[in-house]
Amino acid sequence: MVRIISMASSIRPSLSSLSFSGSSRLGLSLHSSNSSRRLGFLHLGSSVSQLQCSGLKTSKLFRGEGTSISVCAAGNMAQASTDSSQEKALEWIKKDKRRMLHVVYRVGDLDRTIKFYTECLGMKLLRKRDVPEEKYTNAFLGYGPEDSHFVIELTYNYGIDKYDIGTAFGHFGIAVEDVTKTVDLIKAKGGTVTREPGPVKGGKTVIAFIEDPDGYKFELLERGPTPEPLCQVMLRVGDLDRSIEFYEKAFGMALLRKRDNPEYKYTIAMMGYGPEDTNTVLELTYNYGVTEYDKGNAYAQIAIGTDDVYKTAEAIKLFGGVVTREPGPLPGINTKITACLDPDGWKSIQVSTVEQPFKTMFSNLKCSKNLI
What we know:
By secondary structure, the protein is of the alpha+beta class. It is built from 6 helices and 20 strands. Helix 2 packs across helix 6 (309-318). The two termini are 35 Å apart.
């Protein structure tokens, strides 16, 4: 059903479910010489630079005892500093070795889902861990080791058998050599087929759509052997150009292709760290006129490997993301992480580690069922 060819090993590990909280704001205060007055600045460069100074030699933003600030001068300096910071961030991002590690989502019956993924989709159960003190269980599944393949992390929270997938999450993509045979197998196992095998609209690739027991959709794409059968994560966004710019600059992804389909009123953009036929990619979908979606509570996040979470967090802030967990090490291990939201509120974590045996990396990590 799914044929896998060997893939070079990467040192980027997978990371288990984590609970993060908090946010970060950047503030700058300027004081007069008598320290009696304070002027708070938030995003000085972006706001001040928009003020107009036509006809004025100087515009006094603040005047104290022997102290004054020119709005235009301050704005120009702040903008120059921001531009310089962004240029340095982009240079570093181009050199950073990044890879999509895993995707996390919640299911209502872990054993049922494991059975479906292994018997119908050909995945392997890589590991399973129960955390009774936190009342949840994780299972990692995929088509190869976590340190070299994109994998799925399923989370079962004790006593919760149903989640709302919402309208924002789209589907996962799996490359198979024969879509029709795979669909026949899924039907024989009692699976749900929502789109029979056939050419994609406007193209030649044979595809089909199925649903797992929790209602998550999977697109089956007919392809030859690939090192990364779990090949797509599709998410819907409200402003495609904004999202493309963010993922290019903040996450260092490449725009692999963009396709508009006016007949069906949507546009897609494929983003990733390598070609679609050998790497997992992010498929961003914009439906004409739709700017907001319901994300539900089922889908959680993706994890991305990076060389430096501190520099990654700064880049995320510079290019419009919200850092929800400041970068730093996890207790007891060498793994460092940061967490963020993209402009549409999609969650991700960025992970960097020192080289060490992968399975021991998370052996002492205490996780929570409440993901970021």
